[in-house]
Amino acid sequence: MSENHKHTLLIFGKRTELYFSILCGVFLATGFLLDKLSQLSDTLIVVSYIISYGFGAYFISIEAYHKLRRGLFEIDFLMIAAALGAAYIGSWAEGSLLLFLFSLGHALEHYAMNRAEKSIKALGNLSPKTAFLKQGNTLKEIPIENLKINDIIVVKPNSKIAADGVIINGTSSINQAPITGESIPVDKSAIQDHKQPLDFNAIDKSHIVFSGTINGDNKLEVHVLKLTKDSTVSRLINLVNEVETQKSPTQRRTKKFEKIYVPIVIILVTILCFAFLVINESFQTSLYRAITVLVAASPCALAISTPSAVLSGIARAAQRGVLIKGGKALEDLGTITTIAFDKTGTLTEGQPKLKQLIAFNNFNLKELYKLVYDVERLSNHPLARAIANAIKNQEQFDDENNAANVQAIQGKGIQASYKNEPVYIGNLKLITDQDIPISKTIENQINKNLEAGETVMLVGYKNQIIGLISVMDVPRKSASQTLQRLKEIGIKRLIMLTGDHKRVGQAIAQQIGLTEARGNLLPEDKVEAIRELIARNGKVAMVGDGVNDAPAMALSTVSIAMGAAGSDVALETADVALMSDKLEMLPFVIGLSRKSKRIINQNIFISLGVVAILVTVTILGLTNIGLAVLFHEGSTIVVVINALRLLSYKEN
Ligand SMILES: Nc1ncnc2c1ncn2[C@@H]1O[C@H](COP(=O)(O)OP(=O)(O)OP(=O)(O)O)[C@@H](O)[C@H]1O
Ligand SMILES: [Zn+2]
After folding, report:
1. If you placed Cys at 570, which of 86, 384, 425, 546 could pair as Cys (CB 3.0 to 4.6 Å)?
2. Per its record, what are the GO molecular function terms (predicted)?
């Protein structure tokens, strides 16, 4: 619909449609008052109605014309036909009322649609037009489009950040509400050493800043890591634009229904025009009845009932930092009773603490630290980053790296070469795959760590185990409360799918209250698990961070990405993105989806109900055009207003 508006001239800006509708109403009222109150000539009254028609029919005619050219007879066409018919039989006031209410309904619908985009597009405006580029000791103000990767910009206190990047100087509290919806500012500090190559996705979020967010009281220097067009805010805006094109299942069903229904109405009405040939009445009377049926039977309310609810729901979610990509995700989410979770970074903080690093087989401990550090700092895995950072803070190693050729072995660990000999760091499976023997002592040690709920990794080098690394990841603070809440609202199965050891998974699952935990899963096992859950439960939502769980997420009915403000893949592919890392948004979006679905059902019931009653009453000759118009268009507006209730949805 809005696509057609691009062809038209919006002289009063975006609200032109609403103003035209109001003007239509004003001239309708004028005509009506002139008619009732004064003895003025009929010409003046008709002129007033004609002007009213002009304003009311303007946008509708344009839409009808564009659709007709594509061979589509839709509601706009029906409305124009009914209004012209009404004018022909002299029922100007009714025709004008019809156009007024129809155009008002449309204006309201577009208002609802714009809200969805606006809540995020406003952020686009939030990002400043210029940035302060640091060149040696001078600052130069340049347009943000001219920023290049690896530029250094200076962000003044309390000003907007101009680019996605990493802080290299300064500490500040940053308001990220524009992107994550969180109202509380987040503390950010400079990255330790910024000599090595910087990977936006790999850097800890506490050093990353986003374009469009607002700096606190301190000056910052930011190393630019993304071009303006690739910034998180820009990508969000693009995604929001795509949202509108993804129709919900109900939307598709009603569209299909309309395709058959509208032609039937046209045929029925045409036949009714010739009723005077069969029964004893004038052509005028037949025409009057036909037009009334046309008004009564038009599925305007039905056409608007789902899209307005879907878009209001999406807009409401966006206000809270949740991006729902389309009506399908919104409708599906409301019917979910099974949710699968990835562990690391989803249910847990994803910042494991190094617990133990033990050497075996007389390997020098200092050398083991160096080996693990050199290998793990070449990997992007959350475990690797945690381990490398912990060692770096503990030991003072130089930058020289003895490791090379790092390769991830999905779900098992990594392989690399260290001083030209192959080295393996990962779980038990990785080690046994290499036929490296495991002694009783080592086995006992592994069990001890597992019992404590720690994730255990072994280091295999020169065909023996030279060390054991254990780390501990803590559950997110909000995890157990969120899971409790999910159970309360009727989610039956909450399942953890993790690549970690089964015992570690179960320890955490018990702690936070999941109904089930499955461990030792390779990424393909996670996919298999989702397939099985779908077969058993119909619809399954998968919550993950995109690391090692992307294929499983893709297969799930609704995929939900955590902390999408930082990860490219997750944001792009997930059906729902939680812009902040907040698990506690889950009950909120599920509640919102259910409410949206309820409102859609109410709307469909109202619109079809009104049509059924009106058509019957009209054919029985029990109503007039005026009443038909009022009830018919009234139901359209009721439906839109019902949908707009979603904009103030609160979880109770
Ligand atoms: N870079 C790495 N260094 C050491 N061990 C690793 C590395 N990557 C993976 N592993 C080992 O492989 C196991 C499985 O990893 P995977 O990425 O599949 O899952 P995970 O990170 O443990 O948890 P989740 O599946 O919940 O995200 C890890 O538990 C760890 O033992
Ligand atoms: Zn209508």
Report:
1. 546
2. ATP binding; ATP hydrolysis activity; metal ion binding; P-type zinc transporter activity
Instruction: Report the distance separating Cα 26 and Cα 51, nearest Å.
Output: 10
Interval between CA 86 and ligand 2 midpoint (Å): 14
Catalytic residues: 342
Which residue type occupies 255? K
Residue 615 lies in a domain: yes
448 in Cβ contact with 486 (< 8 Å) = no
* Pick from 437, 377, 326: nearest CA to 192: 377
Spell out, as residue ranges, where the chain has pLDDT lower than 50.
Answer: 1-9, 123
Longest dimension (CA), the chain: 112
Residue 384, class by beta-carbon neighbours within 10 Å (0-12 exposed, 13-18 middle, 19+ buried)?
buried
End residue of a domain, out of 422, 444, 472: 472
pLDDT at 5: 42
Residue with tokens 């109503």: 623
In angstroms, the CA 453 to CA 19 distance is 64
Domain count, the chain: 3
Q: Which residue has the tokens 């995890």?
A: 479
Residue 522 is predicted with a pLDDT of 86
| Whether the predicted interface score ipTM is above 0.90 | yes
The rounded distance, in Å, linking the Cα atoms of 371 and 393 is 15
Instruction: Report DSSP letters for 224-256, one per residue.
Output: E-S-GGGSHHHHHHHHHHHHTTS--HHHHHHHH
pLDDT tens by residue, 424-473 = 999 999 999 999 999 999 999 999 998 888 999 999 999 999 999 999 98
Burial zone of 217 (CB within 10 Å; 0-12 exposed, 13-18 middle, 19+ buried): exposed
Q: Which atom of ligand 1 is nearest to the CA of 379?
A: 1
Instruction: Give the Cα separation of 306 and 362 in Å (integer).
Output: 69
pTM of the model: 0.77
Q: Please enumerate, as own/partner, the contacts of 512-516 that have beta carbons within 8 Å and a separation of 24 or more.
A: 512/347, 512/475, 512/479, 512/480, 512/483, 513/480, 513/483, 513/484, 513/487, 514/341, 514/347, 514/483
Closest ligand, as measured to the CA of 471? 1
Q: What is the pLDDT of residue 515?
A: 93
62 burial level (CB within 10 Å; 0-12, 13-18, 19+):
middle
Are residues 358 and 445 both part of a single domain? yes
Supply the DSSP symbol for 364.
Answer: -
The per-residue pLDDT for 152 is 92
Assign 266 to helix, strand or coil: helix
As beta bridge partners, residue 339 has: 494, 541
Domain match, 114 and 19 both:
yes
| Probe target for ligand 1 pocket from 383, 506, 514, with the most ligand atoms within 8 Å of CB | 383
Are 361 and 407 found together in one domain?
yes
Determine if ligand 1 sits within 6 Å of the CB of residue 390: no
The atom of ligand 1 lying closest to the CA of 343 is 26
Q: Please state, in angstroms and rounded to a whole number, the distance separating the CA atoms of residues 219 and 447.
A: 50
Q: 266 C-alpha to center of ligand 2: Å?
A: 14
Local structure of 604: helix, strand or coil: helix
